[in-house]
Amino acid sequence: MHWMHLMRVLGVLVKTFPIEKNRANCAFSLGAAAGVVRQLEEPSMRSSIDGRRAGRVAVVLALPVALGLSSIPVLADPSPPPGEVVPDRRSGTGQNGVALLRVVVPGQDGIDRLNALGVDLAEYRKPVDGGFEVHAVLSPQEAQGLRDLGFDVRGALSDQADFTENTADRQAALASAAEAAAEADTLIPLRAEWFTSRGDRRFLSVEVKSSATDAQTVLTVTWDSGKRTPPGSGGTATMSRFTDAGQYLYHRFNSPLSVAEIPGRVTVTSSRGGSVTAPVTRWLGDRRKAPGRHYVADFVDHYMDPTEVTDRITALAGEFPKISQIVDLPYRTNGYRRAAQAQFGSGAASTFYVSSKAYGHEGGNDISVALVRPAAASAPISVSVTGKDIVVNLATDGAGAISSTARQVVDALDADAEASALLTAGTYRDDAGGGVVAAAPATRLTDSLKAPSSVSRDPFQMKALRIGKKRDGSKTGVFLYCQEHAREWVTPLVCVETAERLLRNYARHGRTRELVDDLDIFVVPTVNPDGAHYSMYDYNFQRRNMTNHCAAGAADPARRNSWGVDLNRNFSVGSIFDGYSGASTNCTGDTFAGPRELSEPEARNEVWLTRRYPNIKFAMNTHAYGGYFMWPPGAYRSTGRELLPRVDLGMENFFWKASGHILSAVQSWRGTAIWPGRTGAVPDVLYSAAGNSSDEHWFNRGVISWDFEVGADVYDPATKRFHAVGFQPEFAEGHEEAMEFAGGQIGILEVARSFADDGDRPGSDLKVTGRTGTSVTFTFETDEPANVYYTLDGSRPTLSSPKLAAAGIREEAQRITVGRTTEVRWFAVDIAGNVEGDYRPDDGSDDYREERVEVRDPR
């Protein structure tokens, strides 16, 4: 059987085994299946994905074939052999070939397949011709392995190659076209906006939903050149179909279009016959007043590790004790520490490794192991220990040749009381260890950690900087937190810059003083201190923390860059343990959710803070990169794209209104505009992220939560393309990102203060939108983001009455149709809880709104 055909069969099998919460019946990994099939075809070939994160499986697929295992690299210090990927920041070559590469997949199925293979995907996705561009952290071996599996792996971000188009599968396209409706489709305009970014250059963004959801429906946009100019005079472009989890959402541009003049209207036409015209409005039109000459900013001048960041906020609290304090978070982290290890052998069957029981800095780095060939024939295996120097005297056969296998050496070390007090031993990745080992000189174990002595190896004390004139819980609280993912170096600078601006401008700037006086602000600049230390000093693409939950079969030293928990997948709402998509249960996967919900102290610290201070009503989780502004819900179950509950219409409108203010604050620094297409609920613009912290805070405690992804794409006028900036741009770019998104955090504080001061009651009106001879269609309009509760049966409306909903994803309010004359009664409630008029829905008053909607009989 051809291996690619077998892969398709195995892929079908994988999809039939959902991951249960107790994980007792976890599906085997597609990555494991791929590896097995390739070994069946070429038994002597080394798996090209075996480098840094090979064998990412919990269950091995058993096939009735004897598998030939290829040789593996030896990872014994001080010099790893050729072919092994060992991180070394001193080389200056991007982790010995590991790089952030562009991968183009034809659709969501391709992303799901990469996740199933355990590929380390960045939190970035961009629609391109032929599908989606995603970015992956890959070694050369892994990149080649993905190419061998048919993936389109392209150059590093520093090499901006042209995109190539991926064609849709012909049979699927023909089947979809056959099912498409023959009549003209209906087009619903969602958004049509222009904006400027990085100067005076203008861009156009349009989103439209078609009632024809098949892939053959093509939408074309034309626009004018401004008021009183002919339709289509500005230009024309074809829209891209945006799908997620196999479902059509709407059409949009792959990226905003550069336009010479500001359009007044756009017309969208469909290949199915539908057409719609919509006005173009301004995105980010909030012109912010400059803070004034006395306002000071720009307090960061280099990337900082978590030790520096924590010292910085501690010093700030000491300098400004009247308006700030340090809150020690209760759960200490694992710490920047590892067991010391060494590995011996040259093939899977003859390889074993040892790990110290003490952490490296606590004595593990002082242990050495030697494998000695005795001079005598027929010698038994034995172990001797002098201090921390361990010698394994290997067994010999009658001819004096070494006869000890890897398994026998492991058993001998485990059986020796003195040796087993110092270390544990294991065969390579659960191999039987039947191969004969070779003699080896004394090799000292090492934890391989390279941070300077200024970085403590002890469990880390996480801290929050609490800022506010009145810090007794009476003021509305705002939680600003950064660097859940270690490799996102810009994000802690955002939090530090925000704290500096608040404290140093308090005495000189009136608007800053109002924020500090009226709010209770909690700043945690680094949620992932251990992983961030590891990222800065050992392996810059580290995403997770440093807690190793892997069993012996996945704990060999070649995997030391693949351990840890993705903290933004470790929370208790919409987690992978509840069946939601976008995380992994594989301990070496970069979206590993941990062994259980809230297993990690870093995640528990976030929960503790929002529980300990219930006055926290707002939160911002700052990540990198891509230039996104998002809100809950953030996760769905893949089957049927079953989302966590969407926010109601009033809250959705509040998010959109607040985004205009907050993103205008981002734009005020250097003109960067976050695109409308990268603004919205997480699954509407990015992907599902099971167990993320924003969902945790929103669904469990009602905290209004946002997610920033700093580092917006940069437009190149010469190529007319947007280019990504990556996790760790040159500091000149990183500095600018910190400055602009610190402004965004200040914008969030301004939104929170307005919320706290909001005592105004909302207003609403009933608006008739259509009439026929037998029916009337209407909706409600409000003068601010608010929810409308209504009745149609003449009863008194309450908070249990039907609530006006959105017509669909990113759409306006639903339309209500009645077929007879109806007495409509309603009231509005804004996000701060203010009720329209003097109405009290729970005490029997009758100050609700009412209007008679008449259906006129045409006879």
UniProtKB/TrEMBL annotation:
GO terms for molecular function: metallocarboxypeptidase activity; zinc ion binding. Keywords: Hydrolase, Metalloprotease, Protease, Zinc. Residues 835-859 are annotated as: Disordered. Residues 427-745 form the Peptidase M14 domain. InterPro entries: GH29D-like_dom (IPR059177), Peptidase_M14 (IPR000834). SUPFAM superfamilies: Zn-dependent exopeptidases. Belongs to the peptidase M14 family. This is Peptidase M14 domain-containing protein.
